Amino acid sequence: MPEIKIDIKSPEFIRLPRVQKVLTACLQCGYCIDVCEAHNQTPWESVTPRGKIYYVKQLDVSGVGAMDALLGREVTLSPEFVDAMYKCTGCGNCEVVCHAKIHLVDFWEDMRAWIVKNGAGPLSAHKGMAEKVRKYHNPYGESPAKRDAWWPADVERAKVPDVIFFAGCTGSYRMQHIAQAGVTVLSRAGVKMNCLGEKEWCCSSPLIRTGNHDASLGCAETVVEKADGMGAKDMVMTCSGCYKTVSSDFGKYYSKVGQNVYHFSQYVEQLINDRKLPLNNEFNHKVTYHDPCHLGRHSGVYDSPRNVIKKIKGIEFVEMERSRENSRCCGAGGGYKSQFNDFATAVAVERIHDAEETGADVLITCCPFCVLNLTQGAKKCGSSIKVMDLSQVLLEVTAPKQAEPKPAE
Ligand code: SF4
Ligand code: SF4
After folding, report:
1. Alpha-carbon distance 157 to 150, whole Å?
2. Backbone angles phi, psi at 145, to 5 degrees
């Protein structure tokens, strides 16, 4: 762990933001502990939501000095504390069970932003990501010129689109088949689409989640300017992280896009209800559904993916014991995967076991980053369950019906 020298009594030290309400509200009851996947991987009290709040409380009163002097202790912005603050996927499970109704997801992000302002964070992988976003506009360090290389050759790019399809960095560079599936399915309903091409910069989610807001400046502005210049009414994305960021964080930190923002599952549900998207084929599998944290707990979109799944013929749908607001995180969010990949994969293994308990042979979710991590989890534990994005399932289900072979004369 790198040595961080932060003198909290120095005039340079930036005092805590206005979090005293949270610090006072916390009952220290510990109901948040068992649901915390980061704590399950690193079972120290300092990693639990309760432990972190307790430490911040001590940081808040330190400098007054009396208690610290009396106890002969030094409460400081130590590397261990910073490490604990980043051992968190930002899943929001703690917030759901918190009896004091503390907005913990916002709190963790505010605390990380404060750590970064004091020069004590983010962690090494997050710094690397931020540098790549600054240089290449994506956290993978891939060429901006190849941003839209995934666009399927057989789908027309409308000059004046109705919909802007926002693929996101993972959809553009690592899980292109999900972006391709999304666009192809929408095109089958006659949706006129285009994407932002090279101007689709990172939505900034990896930077906001790790407290690195300054590094994200410019991303949102570029996206908003380009999107608003295209004359589209709607924006659709298959990535749940991009969805939360563009529909919620853009308005909080930057400017809003002028389009109505939909997650793919919401848009497709409407297309099916309007009888614009024919579900031609059966999908004969027992399936269960994993709620991405950014789509479910953070954005309240629980029903659209389920409604779509239940409309598909041949599917036997079963819920996992932990679902909707109590869903277990896949382990990938909040910069946790980039910094603590082994822990993130271990959380995914737990989620795969949840899915296996239902007897399902397909695990559907609604986010390329969840698909990526859950697939790695399935591989790690040797599970035969197939992890699919909803767009991939619909790609099969909406494929044109093959003509029945003529009976032999
Ligand atoms: S957001 Fe999730 S990982 Fe982070 S402290 Fe809460 S329960 Fe733990
Ligand atoms: S459940 Fe809420 S009030 Fe209780 S310890 Fe956790 S954060 Fe504090």
Report:
1. 12
2. -65, -20
For residue 122, cis peptide bond before it (omega within 30 degrees of 0): yes
User: Per residue in 196-230, is it b (16+ CB within 10 Å) or e — as a string?
Assistant: beebbbbbbbbbbbbbbbebbeebbebbbebbeeb
Q: For ligand 1, atom 6, which residue shows the shortest CA distance?
A: 94
For residue 94, give the ligand nearest its CA. 1
Query: Helices 49-61 and 79-86, interaxial angle, to 10°?
Result: 140
pTM: 0.94
Cβ–Cβ under 8 Å, residues 250 and 181: no
Q: What is the pLDDT of residues 240-296, one digit of tens each?
A: 999 999 999 998 888 899 999 999 999 999 999 999 999 999 999 999 999 999 999
Phi, psi for residue 390 in degrees, rounded to 5 = -55, -35
State the Cα–Cα distance between residues 195 and 391, nearest whole angstrom. 17
If pLDDT is split at 50, 70 and 90, which confidence band does 14 have?
Answer: confident
Alpha helices in 74-156, H assignment, sequence order: 79-86, 93-97, 104-117, 124-136
Token digits of residue 305: 């993916």
CATH architecture of structural domain 140-273: 3-Layer(aba) Sandwich (3.40)
Among all ligands shown, which has an atom nearest to the Cα of 51?
2
C-alpha 49/C-alpha 249 separation (Å) is: 23
Contact 92, 103 (CB under 8 A): no
Pocket of ligand 1 (CB under 6 A): 35-38, 49, 88-94, 104, 108
Please state the domain extents for the chain: 20-117, 140-273, 286-397
Q: Is 140-273's fold the same as 286-397's? A: yes
pLDDT, position 64:
47
CATH fold of 286-397: Rossmann fold (3.40.50)
Residue 70: how many other CB atoms lie within 10 Å = 8
